[in-house]
Write a structure and sequence with these properties.
alpha+beta; 4 helices; 6 strands; 18% helix; globular
């Protein structure tokens, strides 16, 4: 900002009759506004005038926290979002429910690869009493995070709980060297879907002797 000439100052004070002031150009550096109240950059910090501006008052919102596992999960797989794992389990259960879940058992594996969590397409052996697990549908290098299968609604048994045979199959998969660089997280979860109440219940490897159904996701 330039200083006013003596002639201009006298005009403002009423001390001259001339009106030939020429061009008065006023510029300001937003970073140094002099007596106007400090650094103009502080406007972005106030939050009162600029919505989403700079400094402390704006910027991008932080990403939402992932959906946590329910309290019944005491041990969970590492390196994957809890929300992603549960959503994959729900999607696998929905795909099972779209099949002949009233008369057949289906299985699906939840896995991660390059930071992405997904599940295999449900498969069945056509039996209402058992289904075999297979890694044939997993991509090379995948990490198994969970097992999903269903129990058709049968009277007299707790359809929402893994059977002893289910846990034995879980342990076999856990303790068997897998092909193509596939691994299984030591805390992989076990999900059971049943059309008895259309729920998907989650179990961890501390629940092998549990005598009551776990919580649903």
């Amino acid at each position: 900002m330039r200083e006013l000439t003596l002639e201009e100052q006298e005009l403002i004070a009423g001390g001259t009759d001339t009106t030939d002031l020429g061009e008065i150009v006023v510029t300001a550096d937003p970073g140094d506004s002099g007596d106007w109240g400090g650094d103009w950059g502080d406007w972005g910090d106030s939050g009162d005038y600029i919505d989403g501006g700079g400094g402390d008052g704006g910027g991008d919102s932080p990403p939402p926290e992932p959906e946590p596992y329910p309290e019944c999960v005491e041990a969970a797989p590492a390196g994957a979002s809890s929300g992603d794992v549960m959503n994959a389990a729900r999607n696998a259960a929905a795909a099972i429910a779209a099949g002949n879940d009233e008369g057949q058992e289906y299985s699906s594996l939840i896995y991660s690869l390059n930071g992405v969590v997904s599940h295999t397409a449900p498969r069945t052996d056509g039996s209402p009493d058992y289904v075999n697990w297979t890694t044939a549908d997993l991509p090379a290098g995948a990490t198994i995070l969970g097992l999903v299968h269903n129990h058709p609604d049968q009277s007299g048994i707790a359809d929402g709980m893994p059977s002893d045979q289910d846990w034995a199959a879980y342990d076999t998969l856990q303790n068997t060297p897998l092909p193509n660089g596939i691994t299984m997280d030591p805390n992989a979860l076990h999900f059971i879907y049943t059309n008895e109440d259309s729920s998907t219940r989650v179990y961890d490897n501390t629940d092998k002797n549990q005598a009551a159904p776990s919580c649903a996701i």
